[in-house]
From TrEMBL:
Catalytic reaction list: [protein]-peptidylproline (omega=180) = [protein]-peptidylproline (omega=0)
Keywords assigned: Isomerase, Repeat, Rotamase, TPR repeat
InterPro entries the UniProt entry points to: FKBP4/5/8-like, PPIase_dom_sf, PPIase_FKBP_dom, TPR-like_helical_dom_sf, TPR_rpt
Similarity comment text for this entry: Belongs to the FKBP-type PPIase family.
Occurrences of domain PPIase FKBP-type (ranges): 45-133, 163-246
GO molecular function, one term: peptidyl-prolyl cis-trans isomerase activity
Annotated EC: 5.2.1.8
TPR repeats: 441-474
Name of the protein in question: peptidylprolyl isomerase
Domain of life assignment: Eukaryota
Enzyme class: isomerase
């Protein structure tokens, strides 16, 4: 560990202004004149920009960018300058000023550099590192190099919108655009675009060097409209600016609804199920034809979140559509959320308010259940129970109201779960009801239905028998019991057939083994 630290320190020594230390083991010395900014230093392949003055040991000046008034640029570590520069400048920070004493082996050696540098000369360079730009191999295979010309903002993960200019290696302009929009997943122009924008920040400007495999490959591309042709196996130079992007996301499990944010909203609060919202909306077909417009001229369009389908049907029935929507059409809605009224949380309510809110959610659930919106109904019943879940502070009358609501909502939710085929959840909801009312026959019957579907037939039979003891004349329970008995007979037949098949296979295997033994000759020991 100590040896590694010493080695690293010799390559990039830590210096204070006025100090001088060796860099490496080849005689290169660095004296710090002025400290730089930050902690980053350039890497091999980066394009660095420096001002310098070179003198011989006796002080004779032989070259200076300051005299020319123009900084000197080169790519670090690629042999474009003397080795002493490649080794020394990569130890510098932005804005740093240092003097490098460079032995002949890391300068011009025996060859000298007429007319001012003699053979085997030790040189001194006063160097200021102005800046550098990094060229990154963004695909890690040499296919696309990115050089940042202008830094962007901190936020990352862009989606669309770019301005670009594409040239061949000889400078021939191929394509140019201001503000083109595309989705990263779909790509645009050539494969390098999508790879590059994923690494960029808003406002960032870069120069891409794109090899054929990320451009147009062996085939090239013919001229298209105003865009020039790209020859086969051509390397492209692309000046690219990421102007902005819009977040795009699937918002449903089946990925049938795609949301693109055109304008960010305020704050962090969002409406949730049951919240009353006001919106402006425009509905369009793929060709841009508007088929509905609401909330722009005639007042806002209001509805409760998660009831939008029912409200939308009522709304459409009450107005003439602006265009006919063909069957199987993809439609586009541009929606602005104007405002919403956030419902009180349960912890913000007193006991009567909680009971009232729970009752409203229960009624909403009933309406949705009758309309066939089973998942939404289930969520309403769950919300209703959450309002009154903790009723320890309720008085006696309020606790009785709370108990009735819990029983009703959990029973109704159990019916939802049976329809949604979540039988384990249905059984758990019935258990909650029975903890409050042990002789609730509806809870017993729905629990039995869940057990039947879970193939827990013995438990189902025990539950139905208990329900019939409580209400022996209930025709629904009697019919359920007959169904259960029929299922038990079916499963018994299947079990019997299953075991018969196993025993038949075992008997066949034993018979085959016996035949094999009969065919095998007995070996008698001749010495016996």
């Amino acid at each position: 560990m100590e040896e590694t630290a010493k080695k690293d320190d010799s390559i990039n020594p830590i210096l204070k202004a006025g100090e001088e230390k060796d860099i490496g083991n080849d005689g290169l010395k660095k004296k710090l004149v002025k400290e730089g900014e930050g902690w980053e230093t350039p890497e091999n392949g980066d394009e660095v920009e420096v001002h310098y003055t070179g003198v011989l040991i006796d002080g004779t000046k032989f070259d200076s960018s300051l005299d020319r008034g123009t900084p000197f640029k080169f790519k670090l570590g690629l042999g474009q300058v003397i080795k002493g520069w490649d080794e020394g400048i990569k130890t510098m920070k932005k804005g740093e000023n240092a003097t490098f004493t460079t032995p002949p082996e890391l300068a011009y050696g025996e060859s000298r550099s007429p007319p001012t540098i003699p053979p085997n000369a030790t040189l001194q360079f006063d160097v200021e590192l102005i800046s550098w730009t990094s060229a990154k191999d963004i695909c890690q295979d040499g296919g696309v190099f990115k050089k940042i010309l202008v830094e962007g903002e901190k936020r990352q993960n862009p989606k669309d919108l770019d301005e670009y200019e594409v040239c061949l290696e000889d400078g021939t302009l191929v394509s140019k655009s201001h503000g083109v929009e595309f989705t990263v997943g779909d790509g645009y122009f050539c494969p390098a675009f999508a790879e590059a924008v994923k690494t960029m920040k808003k406002g960032e400007q870069v120069l891409l060097t794109v090899k054929p495999q990320y451009a147009f490959g062996e085939d090239g591309r013919s001229a298209v409209d105003s865009e020039g042709a790209v020859p086969p196996n051509a390397t492209l130079h692309i000046a690219l600016e990421l102007v902005s992007w819009k977040s795009v996301a699937h918002i449903t499990k089946d990925k049938k609804i795609l949301k693109k944010i055109l304008k960010e909203g305020e704050g962090y609060l969002r409406p949730y199920n049951g919240t009353m919202v006001q919106v402006k909306l425009i509905g369009k077909l793929e060709d841009g034809m508007i088929f509905v417009k609401k909330g722009h001229d005639e007042g806002s369009f209001e509805f409760k979140v998660d009831e939008v389908v029912l409200n939308w049907m009522t709304f459409v029935a009450g107005q003439q559509e602006l265009a006919v929507i063909p069957a199987n059409s993809t439609v586009y809605y541009e929606v602005e959320l104007v405002s919403f009224v956030k419902e009180k949380e349960s912890w913000e309510m007193n006991a009567p308010e909680k009971i009232e809110a729970s009752g409203k959610k229960k009624e909403e659930g009933n309406v949705l259940f009758r309309a066939g919106n089973i998942e939404r109904a289930s969520k309403r019943y769950e919300k209703a129970v959450r309002y009154i879940e903790h009723d320890y502070s309720f008085n006696h009358e309020e606790q009785q109201q709370s108990k009735l609501l819990k029983v009703t909502c959990n029973l109704n939710n159990a019916a939802c779960q049976l329809k949604l085929k979540d039988y384990r959840q249905a059984e758990e909801l019935c258990t909650k009801v029975l903890e409050l009312e042990s002789r609730n026959v509806k809870a017993l019957y729905r629990r039995a239905q869940a057990y039947i579907q879970l193939v827990d037939l013995d438990l189902a039979e025990a539950v139905i028998k208990k329900a019939l003891e409580i209400d022996p004349g209930n025709r629904e329970f009697k019919m359920g019991y007959r169904v259960l008995k029929e299922k038990m007979r079916e499963y018994n037949k299947k079990d019997a057939q299953f075991y018969c098949n196993i025993f038949a296979k075992m008997n066949l295997q034993q018979a085959n083994e016996a035949k094999q033994e009969q065919r095998t000759p007995m070996i008698i020991d001749s010495k016996a």
